[in-house]
């Protein structure tokens, strides 16, 4: 009799424990929002315990590639942080899956004071991104014979994305046709709030370019201290019209550090720091 009672108690405890595992797993997956399980520890075990098919959920998301244009003079950990914050934000929406990031250093003809040669900036970026499995540097913009407007850089990379996609087989013609629409990733411009503010500067941007950037591609803006990105959007008729294409991602760690301070203190990826030191790229005046 005592043995039977003990068995019954053990059965109840086991069932309760099993239910707790499943409930905990579901809560855990909800916390991670099933967005990118690379952020979730023991994701395979948790998903299996919850009986959730994550692959179907991920396939339903819109693939996104983030493009950041700028001087990258030099590339810093803060630049890479922008990508991470933007990716987290898009994943948390439940709609997007970031599949890649592109860093495009500006052309030498940008003529910014203190801008070192593009070959050095590209080399530093490549070294800094050696440990990244999803962000890469692209030298196309820096290799052009003249300074390139942002919209032209976006158009180029969008064309490259379409070209890299597998072609659909036309059953009637037996030849390749257009890329599968379901597989076409969205290219979004990644920027900081200070970049967004430049849209307000008279004669700096063409209205047609601003409209094409936000309407066709979209923006992911990582907010910084001292800026009011929502205000920048509401003050611009074009941005306000396409505000659903503008994602404002909040940077949890706020800081205001100048590029000069970064170069002096070497708040850089190790590879970029070594490149700067060996080649004496930034001379101390």
Automatic annotation (TrEMBL):
Q: Which enzyme type, at the first EC level?
A: transferase
Q: Cellular component per GO?
A: mitochondrion
- Give the record's GO biological process terms: NAD+ biosynthetic process
Spell out the InterPro entries in the cross-references: Cyt_trans-like (IPR004821), Euk_NMN_adenylyltrnsfrase (IPR051182), NadD/NMNAT (IPR005248), NMNAT_euk (IPR045094), Rossmann-like_a/b/a_fold (IPR014729)
Associated pathway: Cofactor biosynthesis; NAD(+) biosynthesis; deamido-NAD(+) from nicotinate D-ribonucleotide: step 1/1; Cofactor biosynthesis; NAD(+) biosynthesis; NAD(+) from nicotinamide D-ribonucleotide: step 1/1
Record's CDD domains? Answer: NMNAT_Eukarya (cd09286)
Catalytic activity of the protein: beta-nicotinamide D-ribonucleotide + ATP + H(+) = diphosphate + NAD(+); nicotinate beta-D-ribonucleotide + ATP + H(+) = deamido-NAD(+) + diphosphate
Q: Which UniProt keywords apply?
A: ATP-binding, NAD, Nucleotide-binding, Nucleotidyltransferase, Pyridine nucleotide biosynthesis, Transferase
Q: Does the keyword Kinase apply?
A: no
Instruction: Look up the domain of life of the source.
Output: Eukaryota
The Cytidyltransferase-like domain, residue ranges: 67-265
Tell me which Pfam families the record gives.
CTP_transf_like (PF01467)
For this protein, what is the EC number?
Answer: 2.7.7.1, 2.7.7.18
**Coiled-coil stretches:** none
One function term, GO molecular function aspect: nicotinate-nucleotide adenylyltransferase activity
Q: State if Transferase is listed as a keyword.
A: yes
Identify its protein family: Belongs to the eukaryotic NMN adenylyltransferase family.
Q: What is this protein called?
A: Nicotinamide-nucleotide adenylyltransferase
Q: What is the lineage of its organism?
A: Eukaryota, Metazoa, Chordata, Craniata, Vertebrata
């Amino acid at each position: 009799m005592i043995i039977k009672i003990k068995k019954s108690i053990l059965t109840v405890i086991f069932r309760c424990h099993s239910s707790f595992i499943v409930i905990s797993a579901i809560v855990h997956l909800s916390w991670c929002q099933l967005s990118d399980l690379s952020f979730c520890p023991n994701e395979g075990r948790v998903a299996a315990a919850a009986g959730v098919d994550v692959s179907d959920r991920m396939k339903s998301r819109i693939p996104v590639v983030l493009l950041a244009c700028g001087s990258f003079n030099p590339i810093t950990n803060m630049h890479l942080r922008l990508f991470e914050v933007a990716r987290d934000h898009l994943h948390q929406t439940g709609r997007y899956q970031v599949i890649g990031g592109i860093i495009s250093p500006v052309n030498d003809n940008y003529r910014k004071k203190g801008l070192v040669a593009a070959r050095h900036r590209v080399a530093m970026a490549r070294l800094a991104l050696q440990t990244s499995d999803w962000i890469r540097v692209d030298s196309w913009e820096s290799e052009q014979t003249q300074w390139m407007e942002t919209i032209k850089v976006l158009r180029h990379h969008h064309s490259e994305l379409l070209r890299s996609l597998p072609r659909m087989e036309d059953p009637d013609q037996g030849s390749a046709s257009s890329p599968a629409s379901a597989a076409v990733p969205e290219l979004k411009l990644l920027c900081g709030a200070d970049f967004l503010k430049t849209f307000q500067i008279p004669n700096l941007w063409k209205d047609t370019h601003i409209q094409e950037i936000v309407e066709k591609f979209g923006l992911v803006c990582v907010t910084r201290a001292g800026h009011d990105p929502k205000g920048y959007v509401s003050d611009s008729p074009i941005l306000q019209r396409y505000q659903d294409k503008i994602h404002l991602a909040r940077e949890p760690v706020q800081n205001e550090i100048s590029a000069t301070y970064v170069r002096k203190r070497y708040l850089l990826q190790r590879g970029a720091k070594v490149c700067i030191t060996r080649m004496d790229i930034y001379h101390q005046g």
